[in-house]
Amino acid sequence: MVMSMPLIVNCTHSLAFGCGNISVREKTLKGTVCLGKAGSRYGMAVTGDETETGTASDLTACQLRNPSSSLPQGVVGASTHSSQKPLEEALQKRELRLMKNREAARECRRKKKEYVKCLENRVAVLENQNKTLIEELRALKDIYRHKVE
DNA sequence: AGGGGGCTCCGTCATAACTC
DNA sequence: GAGTTATGACGGAGCCCCCT
What we know:
Layout: E1 19-22, E2 24-27, E3 33-35, E4 44-46, H1 61-64, H2 84-148
Parallel strand pairs: 1-4
Antiparallel strand pairs: 2-3
The structure holds a DNA duplex.
Subcellular location: Nucleus
Domain BZIP: 91-142
GO molecular function: DNA-binding transcription factor activity, RNA polymerase II-specific; RNA polymerase II cis-regulatory region sequence-specific DNA binding
């Protein structure tokens, strides 16, 4: 995407996804572009300057997916030398967290879809406007040409 | 029929950003 | 600073289409 100026698109459904600047935050393992929270949390941004940072994304998928690392503190190995209660509590806490995150992910995807649809609509509107303006310009040029002749 | 590729959706993880 | 929320990345599952 090449944009010299951030294109602000007024979109009633923009919600968390503003239409600001999109910057390439980092290069990932798959080589996909990460739409970072560069401008602000509530803005997608498009700028010319790309940065490449060494973050957790530089790790392998396996390194990132150590299952035990995601367990609440105290869960790993807790069963070996403590009663069952803290373990159960921790597992419950984890379940709750996963459930909340599941919901959050759903909502986030819904908003993103809505945002994309909104942008597509905006593109259609602008294309129509552009066509109309071109027509208008052509007509005015015609009128002018006839006048000078 | 079945297998491969592309697409979409979902759950999970990691982490930045936010809140208290 | 700890806890919470939002979101990109990733991998798996299911579906569809096309080719053999």
